[in-house]
Amino acid sequence: MTEDVEKGNLIYKLEVFFTSCLLHGWKDAIVTLQSTKAFPLWSEDLGITSRCIEAIASKVLTHPSKVSLSHSYSRRERDDVSCNGAESQRLKPASKGWWAEDMAELGIDLYWRTMMAVKSGGKIPSNLIGEALKIYAARWLPNISRERNFNKQVGSDSDSDSTNETTSKHRLFLETIVSLLPAEKGAVTCSFLLKLLKAANILNGSSSSKMELTRRAALQLEEATVRDLLIPSISLANDTVYDVDLVITILEQFMLHGQSPPTSPPRSKLGFERRRSRSAENIDLEFQERRRSSSASHSSKLKVAKLVDGYLQEIARDVNLPLSKFITLAEAIPDFSRLDHDDLYRAIDIYLKAHPDLNKSERKRLCRALDCKKLSVEACMHAAQNELLPLRVVVQVLFFEQARAAMGGGKVTELPSNIKALLAAHNIDPSRPTAALSTTTSIQADDQWSVSGFKSPKSKVSTLRMKMAEDELDVSDLQSDGLGRSSKFKAFCALPTRPKRMFSKLLSMNRNSSEKN
To answer: What keywords are annotated for this sequence in UniProt (predicted)?
Structure first.
């Protein structure tokens, strides 16, 4: 069979056929590589597997790859490549990433080796590699990240060998995809990373894979949606619907990466400008780069704050959600990241409705992160009538609502001393008129709060009187509470011990203002 016996023997003919026909054609190389699964040891010894992988990788690297992958592009629309490699005109792929869909048919071992060969070439952009991995995950992990009860089904059928084998197979696919993720930020979307994290949570993936996905998702958290963060909980010791601890870890990682050293403002230019050295220009470029990164970090924190508040509204409906986890998430966001506290107030209101058994101290802790100065007019009107809120929060809302009405309308020339003290505690100059809050900010119709509609001013008085009868506000109560040490409540410590007289003055002030109008 060798050339030692006679020219043109079988081994030589097979080598020529394998090289010029099978390895030269794209689909033939894919089919040949798939066929090596039947005889893996022989294929490795004869070098068939490695040569097929090299041929496939070389063909991928020869194609330009600036066009995104298309999931709708089907291999069935292409003709088979002939043995001599001739292709018809209609074989030109509609997408420069045509290879990813074909490679998705490979088994996990062969796919990993082929993708490593493609990545080592250094010619394929990282985002195209990420899209190829997304196609492969959709092929072999169908709907696994959306099945909330998948883990429960696995647990109920734990005696079945086939179920355990399927779970182990899916876990292997997941671990391999995570190991192939490009290192560059933005190579894959945050939504895809969180879907992989959901699958890892359901399939009980390794802790290293979970931490890697958590770290990478934290770097792009501003791209996520509330739906992406709703990761089902699989812990037997945790009765919550969603895995809040995992989201807290992601948020902590995001805040850790978002920290940047403060930068000093650039010096003002003089009337003349000296010629600058190259090192000075490099320093200026580095400074501008830090400024841009700091600005991007600030804008991303604003987006993440809206994301967390929306997530809080979703998980607040869970009756088994501990108060400590809700507070941890709410207070993890810096104060400057929330331009308004309407979404946070809405989440607190939902949590109060779902947990009516909270005592007075727990309700105070829940409202600790709420800043009444950042509530809109509609939110203030709702909070003033919300019977679920602690009395001190209602008092704060009434104070700021009255202060805004007085300073913005110009009807009242002198504010009460108590309101002046409260404004001074929050660095607000009572002598400087401020613009009234815009009333165009409306609450979305689909976000229903606990009190339907807004009540008349008389209902505010009745609600307040009912709260006063339930809980008398005095200085000793505020000082004994550890939360009263914050700057928000220092102004309350200076209030008189008889709040009824103060409220009567405040309400008479409202009445006089309405009569003048």
So the answer is: Ubl conjugation pathway
Q: Which two tokens stand for residue 444?
A: 């979305």
Q: Given a cut of 80, is residue 38 above it in pLDDT?
A: yes
CA 493 to chain centre: 39
Q: Could you give the CA distance from residue 193 to residue 250 in angstroms, rounded to a whole number?
A: 12
Q: Residue 376's closest CA among 399, 393, 400?
A: 400
Q: Tokens 């920290």 — which residue?
A: 259
Closest CA to 382 of 350, 354, 346, 347: 346
- Whether the CB-CB separation of 104 and 135 falls below 8 Å is answered with yes
- 162-170 long-range contacts (CB < 8 A, ≥24 apart) are 167/203, 170/140, 170/141, 170/144, 170/199, 170/203
Question: What residues have CB less than 8 Å from 492, skipping those under 6 apart?
Answer: 392, 395, 422, 473, 478, 484
What 150-154 contacts at long range (C-beta under 8 Å, 24+ apart), as own/partner pairs, is 150/202, 151/202, 151/203, 151/204, 151/232, 151/234
Higher pLDDT: 294 or 358? It is 358
Residue with tokens 């895995």: 243
Residue 407 burial (C-beta neighbours within 10 Å; 0-12, 13-18, 19+): buried
416 φ/ψ angles, rounded to the nearest 5 degrees: -60, 155
The answer to whether 56 and 114 are in contact (CB under 8 A) is: yes
**Model pTM score:** 0.70
- Residue 58's CB: how many other CB atoms inside 10 A? 14
pLDDT at 322 over 90: yes
Cα separation, 513 vs 401, in Å, equals: 13
Return the SS3 of 232: strand
Of 22 and 157, the one with more pLDDT? 22
